[in-house]
Automatic annotation (TrEMBL):
The keyword Hydrolase applies. One of its GO terms (molecular function) is 6-phospho-beta-glucosidase activity. GO terms for cellular component: cytosol. SUPFAM superfamilies: (Trans)glycosidases (SSF51445). Keywords: Glycosidase, Hydrolase. This is 6-phospho-beta-glucosidase BglB. It comes from Vibrio palustris. GO terms for biological process: carbohydrate catabolic process. The active site is at residue 362. Its EC number is 3.2.1.86. Belongs to the glycosyl hydrolase 1 family. Gene3D superfamilies: Glycosidases.
Length: 472
């Protein structure tokens, strides 16, 4: 590709606290909702007993190894690292009057290290976790009181880190409550639509309030939302399939619509009516929602198809979502359908709809890597996947879309959010640890490490016209 990405384009990777840090009760941290999900977001919850194994308790030990890991990211040429703050490190119970200084001190060290390496932090306030106490005592986000707990937390971290952190995101994949209510909102899986949408409403209000706080406390800061970008295509061109596709896409677009426009889109009125949902929206909520985000961020792993035919929908699957397979696409080992062109399509679609800068904050291939006899990890399938996706990002930029940056998911192997496996590897850096927790935790550069380094160094001009992926 002869095209060079803009000089300001941010290149890097993305991780989440509960999937990398470990040290789940160190230095005053409280238990989080993630700490009681040993089988991942799609598994059952457990009441923790002393001695129970949860791979996230140690994860990849980023809590103690962050300096070396950041050195490796810097060696690859990262200009950006997306991390999340574990809310329960700062407010162990969520409703504490005072923050936990040791938790704040940890992130001080991380941000100082990033500053030393000239890596711009992009920080998510809540990535698939909240203090467990809030889920247990308050029914999670179903409670309006949690808005205040969250804004207290947001204010604390903006005031403490605002001098070094200028880029923020509110809730990771804010639409996830529709699919995994405990992961998204601390709610039971079988909660009613009324509870689920009220919790979502509270999150949208909390997000808007955090946006306002960020604007007030960090005047040169930028804050965005984060959506699971699950673009659906019609399974056929039969008009009812096309209409069904619009309906399903609106399930996630609704979040971006509220967060960019400051009010609910009109199509939700009918939807709420049909679901029998009556939201409690106060005058203060309506006012708060008016504070809109500065940019839109999203994760992108796959696309799927929608159909108006219930028999077709019965075969739907896909990462926590209801998607029919697209016969034109191949899938990863975990069945996630690989669609690089869909990323260009989504970028254009969001740009046309919102005219706000976009940031791809997750994208990557989970695969079972093998350490070869030569001691190396030849992950050519990952390079092919990322090459093809980044190539399409370049195309979108040439289409005129404003793209702020790209942080690949899991630049270092980490624990899977959906399945809690470590063997579902995304990294440029291999971590010696298996799903049972065996291994030295030693880090090793994969072949893709040097590939990504070259791509960043060339500002994308080293990318090649699309190649084939592992599954082909
Ligand atoms: C997104 C989550 C991430 C991450 C990623 C990959 O939905 O925001 O936390 O884990 O998906 O998914 P998984 O880890 O299940 O492979």
């Amino acid at each position: 590709m002869s095209f060079e990405f803009p000089k300001t384009f941010l290149w890097g990777g993305a991780v989440a606290a509960n999937q990398v840090e470990g040290s789940h009760v160190s230095d005053g941290k409280g238990l989080s909702t993630s700490d009681v999900q040993p089988f991942g977001a799609m598994g059952e919850l457990v009441d923790r007993q002393e001695g129970d194994f949860n791979i996230k308790d140690t994860a990849i030990d980023f809590y103690r190894r962050y300096e070396d890991d950041i050195e490796l990211f810097a060696e690859m040429g990262f200009t950006c690292l997306r991390i999340s703050i574990a809310w329960s490190r700062i407010y162990p119970n969520g409703d504490d009057a005072e923050p936990n200084e040791a938790g704040l001190a940890f992130y001080d060290k991380v941000f100082n290290k990033l500053q030393e390496k000239n890596i711009t932090p992009l920080v998510t306030l809540s990535h698939y976790e909240m203090p467990l106490n809030l889920a247990k005592q308050y029914q999670g986000w179903a409670s309006r009181d949690v808005i205040e707990c969250f804004t207290r937390y947001a204010k604390t971290v903006f005031e403490r880190f605002g001098d070094r952190v200028k880029h923020w995101l509110t809730f990771n994949e804010i639409n996830v409550t529709l699919h995994e209510p405990f992961t998204g909102s601390g709610l039971p899986r079988d909660c009613s639509e009324q509870t689920r949408y009220q919790a979502i409403h509270h999150q949208l209000v909390a997000s808007a309030k955090a946006v306002k706080l960020c604007h007030d406390i960090i005047p040169d800061g930028k804050i965005g939302n984060m959506i699971l970008g699950a673009m659906m295509y019609p399974r056929t061109c039969e008009p009812n399939d096309v209409m069904q596709t619009l309906t399903q896409n609106r399930e996630w677009l609704m979040f971006g619509d509220v967060q960019t426009r400051g009010y609910y889109p009109s199509y939700m009125t009918r939807k709420f009516k049909e679901l029998g949902v009556e939201l409690n929206i106060t005058a203060d909520d309506t006012e708060a929602l008016k504070e809109t985000i500065d940019f839109i961020s999203f994760s992108y792993y796959m696309t799927g198809c929608a159909s108006a035919d219930p028999a077709e929908m019965a075969n739907a699957s896909g990462n926590m979502l209801n998607m029919i397979n697209n016969p034109y696409l191949q899938a990863s080992e975990w069945g996630w359908q690989i669609d690089p062109v869909g990323l260009r399509y989504l970028l254009n679609f969001l740009w046309d709809r919102y005219q706000k800068p976009l940031f791809i904050v997750e994208n990557g291939l989970g695969a079972k890597d093998v350490v070869s006899d030569d001691g190396k990890i030849h992950d050519e399938y990952r390079m092919a996947y990322l090459n093809d996706h980044l190539f399409q990002v370049g195309e979108a930029i040439q289409d005129g879309v404003e793209v702020l940056g790209y942080t690949s998911w899991g630049p270092i192997d980490l624990v899977s959010a959906s399945t809690a496996q470590l063997s579902k590897r995304y990294g440029f850096i291999y971590v010696d640890r298996d799903d049972q927790g065996n291994g030295t935790l030693e880090r090793k550069r994969k072949e893709s490490f040097f590939w990504y380094q070259a791509v960043i160094q060339s500002r994308g001009s080293a990318l090649k016209a699309p190649t084939k992926t592992k599954s082909e």
